[in-house]
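SAMPLE LOG
Freezer: B-3
Tube label: C17
Construct: single chain, 80 aa
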Amino acid sequence: MYTARRKIQKDKEAEPSEFEEPVAQSLFDLENTNQELKSDLKHLYINSAVQIDVSGNRKAIVIHVPYRVPTEKTFLQNSC
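STRUCTURE (predicted):
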C-alpha cells in the first residue's frame, strides 16, 4: 500500500522527525485529492522539512527536495 512515508526519503539509518511526517502526509493527501496536481506530485518527495521563525512572530516551513528530481523534464514542461 502506498503511504505518506514514501514521500520522505532519507539516508539509510535516518528516521523522519515528528515535524516531517505531517508535511509528508499533507503532500500525499494533496497528490491523492487534486487530480490536476497528481501527475506532478507523483514522483516528488522530500528529504527534510523544518519550521523556522521569521520576523513578526511568524513561522515558515522550509522543505528540502533533491536537486535532481526523477521527472525533472515533466516539471519544466508544466511550468512553461
